[in-house]
Amino acid sequence: MALIPRIVVGTSRMGSVVPDGLVPASTRERALRHLDALLEAGCTAFDLAASYQLGGTERLFGRWIATRRHRDRLFLIGKGGHPYPLLRPNRLTPEALQADLHASLRRLSVERIDLYLLHRDFPGAPLEPLVEMLGAARRAGKIDGWGVSNWAHSRIEAITALATGAGLPPPAASSPHFSLVDWVHPPWSGSVSIAGPAHREARAFHLRTQLPVLAWSPLGSGFLTSDVHRPSYDSPANGARRERLRALARERGSTPAQLGLAYLFSQPFPVSAVVAASTVEKMRSNLEAAAIRLTAGEIRTLEGEG
Length: 306
What we know:
Helices cover about 40% and strands about 10% of the residues. It is α/β, with parallel strands linked by helices. Strands 6-5-4-3-2-1-8-7 form an eight-stranded parallel β-sheet, with helices on one face. The chain is globular. The two termini are about 40 Å apart.
């Protein structure tokens, strides 16, 4: 599998839950032109999921790929097995994952997804059937690499051991929350973070294994780049981290967003960041962060340990 680009476009707000036939043509064309501009700016990796906009995100991308015919330029990340709150809290089953994968391939109008993630763990769910399903999908050419999203590192270790024993390549990535700022409380049930002092052991796991991290909400849902209130991040400690980030950005002539991303890219294990931006100009600025590295001393200062 190809290396995951440093900057991955977050797509959860793209598309619509409304059936395609009810979406105004002007709205759809505007969305397609926005994707065109992102690709031309240098964004080639996109983080998708069967659950985003109830499939509407993937339908938008399917139309984009079919009309532009540029599948070979894209790195597509897909996710399946997300729970249905209250109705089906556990969809971490081969049947649910296979249904999600096939539906995603159909909506995207592609034969293969470059990196397929198990979207949400359900502790206690048997892992052997999942490994069998992933192995079959890979042999059939429907996925290239595989990984997990919002899994504790102990469960990642367990499924990695089973995969290795079954002849399946190890996971290519884990996608937890990771940022300079830590949660006051998780934004969603079942979310997993490796940020902050409480999760040093999880980061040590990634250091030891060099398992790549695909970090979601890397800028704290805008907390690091504005003065907006975010209940999941509003704390004195996070406010202090934000002020230190702004001070360092002024000193280095960068933006807080760029250094917030550079903080992740300067870790001693591989990190890519899933970033959503309202404009192509902001995404170009984010792409520039991939070349920025912080010193160990700067990282300690940002964390408040310097």
